[in-house]
């Protein structure tokens, strides 16, 4: 399975014609068709195998009836021929069934993981805009339940098509044998499908409501887990627990309403084909008693009546799974159609022009190439906002006098890396987390971030497994490991936001010395108020009320700028 290299935005322009965030049913159908086209060989192969598989089953009752008639007439040659035909049908059924199942599993997994691929790619394209566009619960629900429903929808197309062809074949066989019985099938099957169809629309609506409530509750659970320590600290655990319990009950009620309709659909899948079976059997018996059909044909009718239960149930199952897949596909399309608030320019400038001084005109910050520049703000949030603009996580930054928004976002991300304390450590081997494409910089980065002792203390060193979100490491250890990852990336411009706020003074001094040496000759911006770090930078910019009010060295600003001294030395204004 090839990874979809095309830009997700271009893909969705081909697939989606609805408003962003509000896709219609046609968009979901287009997405499912796109999945089919991406795996058309295995999908059409599975359909072909399913048709042949069901046809082999469909001809068995007719062959058995012919064999019984041959035995009744003492026709040995005919009995041998029909027995061999029955053997061939059985072997064909076994072969086609195995191949169909294998292809069906391939289609199921391909639809699932291709959906995972495009949604992960879209998450990367949205980047920092993802939390503002989608709830956490929506993303989690897509990756857990929706992908299975979409996979099942693609999988059922083969068996559904095979069942439909089998019903048509049985109808033709019965019509050639007995017109009344054939008409019962011709008229009965559409009637059964129409009755089942009456349940599909309310089921569709209830599944959509239940799915929305599930996404909301999943997001609430993620928020609770992430902020449980804070909630306990302020005594809000019981309040949030009650809210979660109330929303959980609403989800339960929505699930019960959905299950009620689903139970009716399941009952219809058993009851309606059962009634159809009784009707065909009763009519066949009357025709046999009246001499209109032979004993072998009577056996065939009984067998067909029993056989039709399977394709009819598979047809109703296909309707059910296609409905579920349609609901899930709409959620996926809603994510894929979400637009970032940091779009690429219509006519991007070449990467070669992304050179010169990096600046934030709004604050007056100017970063000279090749220097280690520090930004100190009286309000730390102002320094973080400047870092966002310098890294184009917000609009307003320039490079060489050109807006950063004039360049493709991927180019900006490649050249300018912003490392802050919101970055997460990922589950898996520590080596792949710190240096997924290690080119030899990892040892020096570990040394520069004073993180060598962290690795040495682990039982398997760099091959040790990182727990979820790095919770097995302390806050200071996580901060140092994040710094390692940023140094391994070795960008042209590195912007660090409070990189040493969680470590002790001795470790902070070591990191400050080594960091400056590690980034020697390359552009580095450090947003910090730590004197140990500031004393080792080339230039310091002091920001008040969002504007640069003083520039100089750390020691020079301590002597000439009282506001800077108060901020850095943590003194009260009095």
From TrEMBL:
Keywords: Membrane, Transmembrane, Transmembrane helix. The keyword Isomerase does not apply. The chain crosses the membrane at residues 43-64, 79-99, 156-175, 181-200, 270-289. InterPro entries: ABC1_TM_dom, ABC1_TM_sf, ABC_transporter-like_ATP-bd, ABC_transporter-like_CS, P-loop_NTPase, Type_1_exporter. It is a multi-pass membrane protein. Its main location: membrane. Residues 45-324 form the ABC transmembrane type-1 domain. It comes from the Bacteria. The keyword ATP-binding does not apply. It is found in: Cell membrane. Residues 296-570 form the ABC transporter domain. PANTHER family: ATP-BINDING CASSETTE SUB-FAMILY B MEMBER 10, MITOCHONDRIAL, ATP-DEPENDENT PERMEASE MDL1, MITOCHONDRIAL. This is ABC transporter. It comes from Paractinoplanes deccanensis. The lineage of its organism: Bacteria, Bacillati, Actinomycetota, Actinomycetes, Micromonosporales.
């Amino acid at each position: 399975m090839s990874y979809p290299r095309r830009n997700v935005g271009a893909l969705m322009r081909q697939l989606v014609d609805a408003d962003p965030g509000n896709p219609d049913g046609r968009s979901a159908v287009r997405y499912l068709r796109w999945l089919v086209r991406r795996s058309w060989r295995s999908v059409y192969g599975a359909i072909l195998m399913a048709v042949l598989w069901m046809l082999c089953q469909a001809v068995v009752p007719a062959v058995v009836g012919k064999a019984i008639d041959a035995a009744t007439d003492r026709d040995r040659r005919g009995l041998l021929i029909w027995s061999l035909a029955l053997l061939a049908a059985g072997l064909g059924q076994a072969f086609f069934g195995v191949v169909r199942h294998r292809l069906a599993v391939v289609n199921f997994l391909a639809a699932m993981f291709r959906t995972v691929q495009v949604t992960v790619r879209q998450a990367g394209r949205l980047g920092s805009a993802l939390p503002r566009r989608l709830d956490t619960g929506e993303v989690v629900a897509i990756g857990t339940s929706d992908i299975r429903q979409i996979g099942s929808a693609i999988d059922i197309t083969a068996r559904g098509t095979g069942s439909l062809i089998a019903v048509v074949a049985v109808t033709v066989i019965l019509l050639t044998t007995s017109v009344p019985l054939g008409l019962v099938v011709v008229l009965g099957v559409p009637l059964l499908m129409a009755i089942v169809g009456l349940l599909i629309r309310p089921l569709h609506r209830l599944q959509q409501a239940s799915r929305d409530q599930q996404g909301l509750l999943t997001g609430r659970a993620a928020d609770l887990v992430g902020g449980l320590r804070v909630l306990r600290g302020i005594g809000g655990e019981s309040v949030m627990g009650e809210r979660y319990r109330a929303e959980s009950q609403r989800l339960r009620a929505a699930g019960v309403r959905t299950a009620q309709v689903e139970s009716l659909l399941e009952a219809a899948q058993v009851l309606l084909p059962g009634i159809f079976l009784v009707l065909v059997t009763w009519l066949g018996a009357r025709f046999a008693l009246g001499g209109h059909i032979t004993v072998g044909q009577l056996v065939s009718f009984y067998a067909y009546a029993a056989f039709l239960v399977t394709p009819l149930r598979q047809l109703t199952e296909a309707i059910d799974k296609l409905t579920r897949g349609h609901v899930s596909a709409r959620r996926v399309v809603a994510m894929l159609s979400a637009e970032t608030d940091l779009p690429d320019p219509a006519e991007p400038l070449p990467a070669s022009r992304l050179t010169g001084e990096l600046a934030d005109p709004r604050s007056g910050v100017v970063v000279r190439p090749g220097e280690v520049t520090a930004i100190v703000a009286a309000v730390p949030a102002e320094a973080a906002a400047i870092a966002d603009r310098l890294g184009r996580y917000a609009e307003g930054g320039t490079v060489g006098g050109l807006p950063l928004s004039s360049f493709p976002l991927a180019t900006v991300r490649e050249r300018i890396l912003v490392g802050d304390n919101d970055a997460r450590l990922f589950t898996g081997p520590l080596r792949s987390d710190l240096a997924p494409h290690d080119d030899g910089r990892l040892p020096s980065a570990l040394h520069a971030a004073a993180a060598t002792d962290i690795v040495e203390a682990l039982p398997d060193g760099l091959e040790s497994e990182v727990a979820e979100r790095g919770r097995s490491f302390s806050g200071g250890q996580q901060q140092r490991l994040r710094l390692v990852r940023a140094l391994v990336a070795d960008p042209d411009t590195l912007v660090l936001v409070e990189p040493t706020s969680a470590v002790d003074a001795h470790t902070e001094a070591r990191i400050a010395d080594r960091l400056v040496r590690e980034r020697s000759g390359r552009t580095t911006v450090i947003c910090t108020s730590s004197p140990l770090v500031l004393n080792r930078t080339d230039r310091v910019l002091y920001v008040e009320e969002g504007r640069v009010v003083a520039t100089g060295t750390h020691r020079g600003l301590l002597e000439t700028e009282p506001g800077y001294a108060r901020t850095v030395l943590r003194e009260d204004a009095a």
